[in-house]
Design goal:
Elements (H helix, E strand, L loop, with lengths): L8 E7 L9 H12 E2 L4 E7 L6 H5 L1 E9 L9 E5 L3 H6 L5 H14 L6 E7 L12 H20 L5 E2 L15 H5 L3
Parallel strand pairs: 1-3, 1-4, 4-6
Antiparallel strand pairs: 2-7, 5-6
Helix pairs in contact: 1-5
């Protein structure tokens, strides 16, 4: 039996700009999550990049949302940050980069249209640098595995257990060598 057309799903949304250092964390984390795991039915993994308001239909279709992004916090660069409930909006309104203006507008639109997800969480890392450059800083790159583990664990606890891809196990080291431009673009 197929799902009704208006059925709502769960969503993992990676946000950020790969051309701006640690601002690309959300997109890099989503790419790594996709490399390691298949999502179960009902869970969408979406690279939102810097799309802002054009993501509105995507978010409106989800009951549960996990946003992956760089997050400002009183912690050292590369530290894991998890936000839920009332803590989400202020954190995503704090402008770390230009794409976060679009994220603030997106959150406003969800309120105005009364389509706020039942649960919205942000998982990310504290950035070290957000300037125009390719690749993640060393502390953020070191924290990426912990972020992937946290996302996979939260998804499983919420009933959306990821299926590990062959050869993409969590215990295998991630190759972060090679050309920084190719790494930033997921090549």
């Amino acid at each position: 039996m197929s799902e009704p057309e208006n059925a709502r799903s769960a969503l993992v949304l990676g946000l950020g700009n790969l051309l701006c250092g640690d601002d690309g964390l959300g997109v890099a984390a989503l790419a790594e999550l996709s490399r390691r795991f298949h999502p179960p039915p009902g869970l969408d993994l979406v690279d939102g990049g810097t799309l802002g308001l054009s993501l509105l239909p995507t978010l409106e279709s989800a009951d549960e949302v996990w946003i992956l992004d760089a997050v400002a916090a009183e912690a050292s660069p590369g530290s894991l940050v998890r936000l839920e409930g009332e803590a989400v909006e202020p954190a995503l309104r704090e402008r770390l980069s230009p794409h976060q203006i679009g994220v603030a507008d997106l959150l406003d639109a969800l309120h105005w249209r009364d389509t706020w997800p039942k649960r919205l969480r942000v998982l990310g890392l504290v950035p070290a640098r957000m300037g125009l450059e390719l690749g993640l800083s060393e502390p953020v790159a070191r924290g990426l595995d912990g972020l992937i583990d946290a996302v996979a664990s939260e998804l499983a606890a919420a009933g959306h257990a990821l299926v590990q891809r062959p050869g993409g196990g969590l215990s295998e080291p991630v190759d972060r060598g090679g050309d920084p431009a190719a790494r930033a673009l997921g090549l």
